[in-house]
Amino acid sequence: MINIDTFAYNSKLKDRDPMEKLLFTFVTLSVCLWANSIIISLTVLLIMTWSTIYGGGIPRTVYFKLLLIPMVFLIFGVLAVAIEITPQPYEFLGSISFFNFYLGVSKAGLITATQLFFRALGAVSCLYYLSLNTPMIDVMSALRKLRCPKLLVEMMSLIYRFIFIFITTAETMIIAQSSRLGYSRFMSGYRSLSLLISSIFIRSYQQADKIYTSLESRGYDGELNVLEKSKGYISTGYLKVLGINVFLVILTFII
Amino acid sequence: MKQDKAFLILSLTLILILQPKSAYGMHIMEGFLPPIWSITWGLMALPFVIHGFFSLKKTIDEAPKLKLLIAMAGAFAFLLSALKIPSITGSSSHPTGTGLGAILFGPTIMSVLGMIVLIFQALLLGHGGLTTLGANTFSMAVVGPFVAYAVYVIIRKADGPQWLGVFLAAALGNLSTYTMTSIQLALAFPAELGGFIASLTKFMSIFALTQIPLSISEGILTVLVIKSIASYANVVIPSIQNIDEGA
Fold this sequence. Notes:
The complex is a heterodimer of chains A (255) and B (247). Chain A has 255 residues and is mainly alpha-helical. Helix content of chain A is 72%, strand content 5%. Chain A starts with a helix and ends with a helix. Chain B is globular and about 55 Å long. Chain B has 247 residues and is mainly alpha-helical.
């Protein structure tokens, strides 16, 4: 389920300065949203896909499967933007009458929807560039450097740790339950799932207690300090970020 | 007439094909909102998150032991959103967990936890996004939990049965999240004809297909979960005051 995390730890870009990757993601993302043009979005999609697949060494099939995740929302959302519903006919490019209503697509709606489709796709590729090439630990160390409140970052790192404990527990339990036909019927599925959730909840309560006791016996005073591996800082990396985005901005003005 | 039929068949097939993954439709995807709305919803969510953060800080300063417990709660909320609810059609949907979280931990803390969970969902699962984080936080971590909590408290105050309170809290928490998401989308993309209202109708009716059955199943599930937690509550977890034993 958490494939993205595994790929991030195996990425060839893993040891790059996380700040550079964050900057690249956010600046390109902003340019993509601001430009709102099909060509810029496609360029962003191309650059980010290329950086992830060739730069990061993420398998192509995995990448394209991941791009399908937001597709359901995207298709529904874009259809809702494109299709207008009116009681009387309007200057549509094409329309269907449906009971007493007209469902149609107008020219402006079509343009907005197409722009939206590609813009969102470009933006998703930026998100995946970050998440497929940056281990979460690095994201959090970058947040720490950006003066994010200490408690918030610590909360994030604790939650991140616990997520994996829970998922392993839940997976084991689901296998145990389904091997006893726990999910074979609709109602038993509900019962099994509710048992699963409540026992994970209770177990996590007890586990939190135990973890606190063990931390306290090792001198815990409210802070978990860890040594960070220093990441290679390459100034050409930042120049690349700057170069690509200046190029994108200029391209926006030319078109 | 023929076109009517074709449209019906097309929409039915679409529903059947898209159903299995539909529950993730709750999160507005990366890049879907124009920049101005991304910023606006970020600013709308910010006061709630800040307030939640300070109340979290206060809680932890008073009882440091709770820090790990709250982190566990956050991971629990993440796990909930990754589980599948079995449903009649054989497809599956995912609970939001906002109702359960709000009942167990209170809505203020849920706003911070919800935001963290949304960040992880975007980065680890590809659901939601970074630029839409503000909008998603507002609908899923602010509106949902507050509605759920209010419903629960009102029903308990009125001496309603616990199961009814939990069911309505979870179901309405889910529904209010979906309504808020539709409002956000409609504001960002008003229809050419009829503006905001027409657009809202469109988004609401599209998401209603998936969200109304989902909110009912989440309600049922949450009742079952609270019931079995309550049977342990007094033994194991003395700190949960919101649940009565043996409900």
